[in-house]
């Protein structure tokens, strides 16, 4: 009987990232228990946004922890997407994952910095701070959903491609709901400056992710 060579994709690196995300979530729940519980109930209640929307402290410990979770969760999903669709053998997968995390971190932090600069230039700091808080809160919450679904891509026996398309559908629905909620909460302001809002969406919410996609595809 002729032996058949079997290829197994190692998930050791992904397990480290997953454990790191779980550690950060445990730390956030331990240090900020009430805030964490309010945050995780965001899908059912807007209590967290109502209570915390006046703080606008991006460097607050809980916000930093959840932003880190967001970056790692999205980067993990992007890496899994690349691994799912590439026909190449990812011999240096650690380097690729590190590049994805670095690139996405840069985009997220750059977007926030540019938004803060624009707010300062046009003297609309309070408006932009509220918008950034609302947007980032929803994105951080969605990243928890992405993280949970990514676990199925890593460890589940469910066929990867149908599961991937299901995850993409859930992400699109979640992002659409986020945009709807933000527009609803700021409808009066957006209706006055709708052209600038559309310009902002195209320039700072769509373009950076197109650039990230191009970079990963080129690699």
UniProtKB/TrEMBL annotation:
InterPro entries linked: DUF4271
Name of the protein in its database record: Uncharacterized protein DUF4271
Keyword Transmembrane included in the entry's annotation: yes
Keywords assigned: Membrane, Transmembrane, Transmembrane helix
Residue spans crossing the bilayer: 13-32, 58-84, 96-114, 138-156, 162-182, 194-216
Coiled-coil ranges from the UniProt annotation: none
């Amino acid at each position: 009987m002729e032996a058949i060579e079997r290829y197994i994709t190692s998930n050791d690196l992904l397990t480290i990232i997953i454990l790191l995300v779980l550690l950060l979530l445990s730390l956030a729940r331990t240090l900020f228990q009430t805030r964490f519980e309010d945050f995780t109930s965001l899908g059912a209640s807007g209590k967290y946004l109502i209570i915390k929307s006046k703080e606008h402290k991006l460097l607050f410990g809980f916000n930093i922890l959840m932003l880190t979770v967001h970056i790692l969760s999205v980067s993990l999903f992007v890496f899994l997407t690349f691994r799912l669709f590439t026909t190449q053998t990812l011999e240096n997968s650690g380097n690729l994952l590190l590049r994805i995390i670095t690139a996405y971190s840069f985009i997220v932090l750059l977007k926030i910095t540019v938004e803060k600069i624009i707010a300062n230039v046009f003297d609309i700091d309070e408006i932009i701070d509220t918008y950034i808080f609302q947007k980032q809160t929803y994105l951080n919450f969605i990243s928890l959903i992405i993280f949970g679904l990514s676990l199925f891509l890593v460890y589940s026996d469910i066929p990867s491609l149908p599961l991937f398309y299901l995850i993409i559908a859930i992400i699109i629905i979640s992002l659409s709901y986020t945009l709807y909620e933000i527009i609803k909460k700021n409808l009066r302001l957006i209706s006055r400056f709708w052209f600038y809002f559309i310009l902002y969406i195209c320039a700072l919410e769509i373009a950076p992710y197109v650039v990230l996609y191009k970079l990963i595809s080129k690699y």
